[in-house]
Amino acid sequence: MGSGSGLEEVAPNSWRIRQLERSPTEIIPISSLRPSDSPRLSGENKEHVKVLAESEAPLPPIIVHRSTMRVIDGMHRLSAAVLRGWDEIEVRFFEGGEQDAFVFAVEANVTHGLPLSLNDRTAAATRIIGIRPQWSDRMIATLSGLSAKTVAAIRRRSSEESPQSNARVSRDGRVRPLNASAGRQLASELMRGNPEASVREIARAAGVSPSTVWDVRERLRQGEDPVPARHRGLTQPKKQPRAEVATPPRREAPDRGQIMDILQKDPSIRSKEKGRQLLRWLNFHTVDLSQVDQLVNDFPEHCSGIIAKLARVNAETWNELANRLEKE
Hints:
The chain is α+β, with helices and mostly antiparallel strands. It has helices spanning 14-21, 46-54, 75-83, 98-111, 118-131, 137-144, 148-157, 180-193, 199-206, 210-221, 256-264, 267-270, 273-285, 292-298, 304-327; strands at residues 26-29, 62-65, 70-73, 88-94, 167-169, 175-177. Helix content is 50%, strand content 8%.
């Protein structure tokens, strides 16, 4: 494309895909093709490739960037063709720059084929903001399959010069925003725009921990701001000291380990079989807050919803037990 008709000067629209779909096709050797600059962060879905390869249905032409011979759209179909034993494949050529090709790849993968994950779409929007900062939030949202508010949150988190300038990679390999409020705000926008997304999907896409996502979700459920006052730079008004009464310092509540240690040392509990059974039951049914992140990562993603419901039921049961014990 010449400088007068590039993607950078017009809004991305599905008519570009339809226009390319009407262009003539060519048969070229598979060996001449290069892997795509794909918006799919995890690469190809092997199960999807297998389904395509075993199907008797014809494979639609793939889209190839002519100047680099990279596959823009159709890596699953290309891999399926290889599994079928083909040496050649039908293609349509895309004319334009490499950045234009990536933008086209995002739009093509959002509008048809195997859907992009929330993490893929968020990363794609972040990259497009970096290469096309002049595009509106609504335009990028249309391209990436996100809401305009979500794109605005991504833009706030990432500077135009460096999409990851406001983030760091922690020791566990995850990207964490240096500005905690930005990650929380992005997580809240992702929840609103993608209500079916799992906690782990939101956490990966927003660059926050699963426990932070749980906290943001609970705050939204209660109608509160997803960003706590301390992260918004707000401070509680200082209370005037009461000269007439000296208030003793508040003791921190003991953690699970301290409570269990107290109970295990109590002779009236450890000396009886029922007491020892109670200790085993308590030890089995209680969880430290520090274990939450690991538990969230260990749960199968498709079970997250039902396990969340179980956790809320258990929380209600424990609350009822506490109420009854306090009345004794």
